[in-house]
Amino acid sequence: MRPALGFQFLGGANMDLTVGSFDEPTRFRPASNVSIETALEAWMDVSHLPARRLDHHAPAVDRWMNALGKLPD
Length: 73
Description:
The protein is of the alpha+beta class. Helix content is 15%, strand content 8%.
């Protein structure tokens, strides 16, 4: 199953697009949060957590290789 690029509410004039759908998502800056009551506070700022590249995490590499035969671009 492929992730959705976006969605539009029935009868709505606005359409939402997922930032990950774009080739260069870092060019986008958030302007607001909608439906904040559903947000998980623990996910708001994860900059303090240890980080590593996907290709250095063997379990994730295995899942991608089994699913697609390659790592994401």
